[in-house]
Amino acid sequence: MDSRCSSSADSRLAGRGAGSPNARLESYEAGEKKCISDVRRTFCLFVTFDLLFISLLWIIELNVNGGIAKKLNEEVLHYDYHASFFDIFLLAAFRFVTLILAYAVCRLNHWWAIAVTTTVCSGFLIIKVILSK
Fold first, then answer.
1. For position 4, what pLDDT does the model report?
2. CA distance readout (Å), 17 to 20, 25, 28
């Protein structure tokens, strides 16, 4: 971790002084130096878990329906919108990349990225459920 950043454990330890004003000041200063907030870190972890979970489900689906190598060839190289789940994996990857870029890299403080990805993903999945075989 960069020297400009401090972990939440460091800020908690700094606040355990003998109650002196200097200990509190150090605690507030350490809190301002944090690279990413705990809530933002948890959200990024949730988005990462979502991608890994969708990937695992897709791999299980490939294995159950005739072997991973054969089904990968069918679903990726010979893509069929009505039968393939490769697009759902790509949708999860799109959601992951968009949200991690917005909230971890760019440190966006607005809700529009979540609204856009939720709208796109929900619309696509509703259409996919209606049209899939």
1. 53
2. 7, 10, 13
Unique residue bearing structure tokens 């490769």: 86
- pLDDT greater than 70 at residue 5: no
Neighbours of 34 (CB within 10 A): 17
Gap between the Cα atoms of 97 and 94, Å rounded: 5
- CA 112 vs CA 28, 29, 42, 98, 106: distances in Å: 30, 30, 19, 11, 13
Q: Which two tokens stand for residue 25?
A: 């000041």
Q: Which two tokens stand for residue 62?
A: 């490939």
Return the structure tokens found at 67.
Answer: 């072997």
How far apart are the two ends of the chain, measured CA to CA in Å?
Answer: 49
